[in-house]
């Protein structure tokens, strides 16, 4: 396996946690007695750039299915943090117009959610948040920038650990942010 950042060969193990099913892959009554899919859960360290990362065996589509169940909005503490963050960023960036984005929408600030999982995207849309159902990557960022949709602020929580290509994701940040954006 190659490093998700610098593409060096990974050969330094940090910890082996055995095997685990995909997170949030809840079983239905119909499949309780069927074989369950498990993946190795090993963590490696890149000896070139020192990025600590899981050894990946699953494709993004296997982990982020249409019925993906994790929602940050189930934590009241996190919701409070998101509301305070939205107020702070609105003030700091002098903005005039998700659990996080709904706070900006409520303040009249135009937002766009980028969400590849159908269930999470639908939940955001039900709150009045426009959503593109895609992975956040350089091609998308370029498309948005060409169409005049660069951002003053890009906010992502618990994202880098889950994106298939962290370098492509990072290049998107560069392309999609306005000069002086955060």
Q: Could you explain how this protein is built, in words?
A:
By secondary structure, the chain is of the alpha+beta class. The protein has six helices and five strands. The strands form two sheets. A three-stranded antiparallel sheet has the order 1-2-3, with no helix packed on it. The protein has a two-stranded parallel sheet with strand order 4-5. The longest helix has 17 residues, at 76-92. The mean pLDDT is 83.
Layout of strands and helices, then pairs:
Elements: E1 12-20, E2 39-45, E3 52-54, H1 60-63, H2 76-92, H3 101-106, E4 113-114, H4 118-126, E5 131-132, H5 138-146, H6 166-176
Parallel strand pairs: 4-5
Antiparallel strand pairs: 1-2, 2-3
Helix pairs in contact: 5-6
The gist of it:
With 182 residues, this protein is an alpha+beta fold. The protein has helices spanning 60-63, 76-92, 101-106, 118-126, 138-146, 166-176; strands spanning 12-20, 39-45, 52-54, 113-114, 131-132.
């Amino acid at each position: 396996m190659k490093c998700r950042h610098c593409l060096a060969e990974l050969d330094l193990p940090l910890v082996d946690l055995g095997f685990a099913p995909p997170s949030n892959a809840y079983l239905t009554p119909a499949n309780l007695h069927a074989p369950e899919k498990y993946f190795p859960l090993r963590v490696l360290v890149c000896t070139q750039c020192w990025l600590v990362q899981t050894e990946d065996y699953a494709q993004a589509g296997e982990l982020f299915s249409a019925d993906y169940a994790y929602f940050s909005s189930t934590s009241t503490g996190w919701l409070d943090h998101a509301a305070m963050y939205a107020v702070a960023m609105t003030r700091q960036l002098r903005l005039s117009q998700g659990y996080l984005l709904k706070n900006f929408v409520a303040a009249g600030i135009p937002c766009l959610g980028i969400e590849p999982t159908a269930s999470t995207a639908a939940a955001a849309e039900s709150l009045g948040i426009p959503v593109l159902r895609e992975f956040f990557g350089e091609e998308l960022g370029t498309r948005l920038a060409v169409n005049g949709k660069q951002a003053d602020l890009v906010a992502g929580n618990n994202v880098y650990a889950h994106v298939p290509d962290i370098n492509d994701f990072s290049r998107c940040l560069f392309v999609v942010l306005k000069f002086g954006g955060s």
